[in-house]
Batch of 2 targets.
Target 1
Amino acid sequence: MTFNTSLPYQIIAQSDYQRMPWKNGLGETLEIQRHEDESGLRFRISQASVVEDGVFSDFSGLHRTLVLLSGEGMTLEHAVKNNSHTNKLSNALDIARFSGGDTTYATLKSGKIEDLNIMVRETDTHANVQAFTAPCSLLFSNNSTLFSNDDFLFCGFYVCEDGMLEIENTVLTISAHSMVIFSQNANTKLTKGSGVFINITELD
């Protein structure tokens, strides 16, 4: 990942996200970040609106983490072979985790919702996804070489609502739906708003 700044972070505005159609043709997504290698898609982070009930696209081989950003919520029913389970997203920042290969049916509670979707390859990649509300600190690894290790793939903070981040004593006002990508450990505090911290690494 190439950074165009010497700062320990880079801010990507929503206007810079790539607009793409859904795999099933029933909507579109704003792609925030993606990484591919010789084996195909390694991870993808995207933002999308769900406007009607329906079956999710099949993403077999990928693990999905879905965060509710806005709306009245939805229920996800997952079926794989003879097993089934349900995720209910009722409030902003609720999180669902499931296999992209599950047959997943979404039922909206009352009108459209907006979500953040993090997908990683199940065989070799792990996504640690946590929701935060101000005031709080974002805790990085104590290992100062975290961002130079081979197991590091991505570390960023998605801003859900207009907020303020204090990074290494610099206070930043950041617009909603922007992504802050970190290139190294940084003393970071969320002083206003809420967001989603995403750390993607090699699977042990």
Target 2
Amino acid sequence: MLASTPAVRTSATLAAVILAALLLAGCGQDDDPSVATTSAAPTSAVPSSATPTAPAPTATATPSASASTTPVDQEITVTIAKRRVDPPTGRITVSKGKLIRITVTSDVSDELHVHGYDVGARLPAGTPGSVEFRADQTGLFEVETHDSELVLFQLVVR
């Protein structure tokens, strides 16, 4: 029978604390493949003499074409200026099964996130960022920014 020594107990406790800290460490959306850059062309990837022929696709919960060409059932547009959300924070109701596009323009760089659907987009300052997804889950879902921690609206899917 092995005796439990103080060193073994300390190592096990330390490992448990580290594991708990890793599990509780924020939302971690930067590593999430559902977080995509907006449709703006990257400045370092496009030579100054070249012009892109189509915008890059935005984050989607289901495969689809680029947000600029995909017909959607409901489009929601939000603007953030000086930490004020326009239209003001409230609830927006959509029908289950509809294709939704949320476009946000912020005056500061941030990240858009739709809870429950786990889709998001980076929001470079002054450049619209969009997410597109099929509203296939019923419930109440917060749509927020990560860095400024603003609730943009609550999405109600019925």
